[in-house]
Specification:
The structure is a single chain. 37% of the residues lie in helices and 16% in strands. The protein starts with a helix and ends in a 14-residue tail after the last helix. The longest helix is centred in the N-terminal third of the chain and has 19 residues. Strand 1, helix 3 and strand 2 form a beta-alpha-beta unit. It contains six helices and five strands; from the N terminus they run H-H-E-H-E-E-E-E-H-H-H. The chain is α/β, with parallel strands linked by helices. The chain has a five-stranded mixed β-sheet with strand order 2-1-3-5-4.
């Protein structure tokens, strides 16, 4: 106990001496700030997304701008992607496997009804990142999907959606269980 008081007092004297002599005393970074968690890289293959390729790339870029825990990148030639993106004539939908893996369909039915292709892409990628539909919902909620109406073109996740994705991927790094994504088959 006495040794702790002496060394604590000595540390305080040294710190004050540096401040008085013009030196700068700084705190050592904590373990949390010293080791930032690297983003989990997920690749996507949009070669089957036909006329929606630019909307898919923009949807991925929006997620990259919005969250730190995960980064979506186009798959390299000859590699297997985590996420496959396909165009079809049905309604947009996502078929998630495990977190960060699955298939997204950009359905022409919703596009023909007037829904925004970038919002569709960003929304369906949100399912692959572990987010459920939140219907009905306002346009400010990306995961409100089609319930926000055709006039809604907001492709950005809101603060709660961003936080949920950050938490999902932080848990995978920490080895904690993450709820399995559910398939979203219609009206997503």
């Amino acid at each position: 106990m006495h040794v702790r008081k002496v060394t604590g007092g000595l540390a305080a004297v040294v710190t004050m001496s540096f401040a008085l002599l013009g030196g700068q005393a700084t705190a050592a970074p904590s373990d949390e700030t010293a080791r930032p968690v690297a983003a989990r890289v997920l690749t996507y293959d949009a070669s089957g997304s036909a006329e929606f390729r630019s909307a898919v790339d923009r949807g991925a870029a929006i997620w990259n701008e919005s969250v730190d825990a995960v980064e979506l990148r186009p798959v390299a030639s000859g590699q297997r992607a985590n996420i496959r993106v396909l165009a079809d004539n049905g309604w947009p939908r996502a078929l998630p496997g495990s977190l960060g893996n699955g298939t997204v369909y950009i359905g022409r039915q919703a596009v023909n009804q007037g829904y925004d292709t970038v919002r569709i892409s960003s929304h369906e990628l949100g399912h692959i990142l572990g987010l459920p539909d939140r219907k009905p919902g306002p346009c400010s909620s990306l995961m409100s999907g089609s319930s926000a109406g055709v006039a809604c073109t907001n492709p950005y996740p809101n603060a709660a959606e961003r936080a949920e994705v950050e938490d999902n991927f932080a848990r995978t790094v920490a080895g904690q269980p993450v709820p399995a994504p559910r398939a979203v088959l219609a009206g997503g």
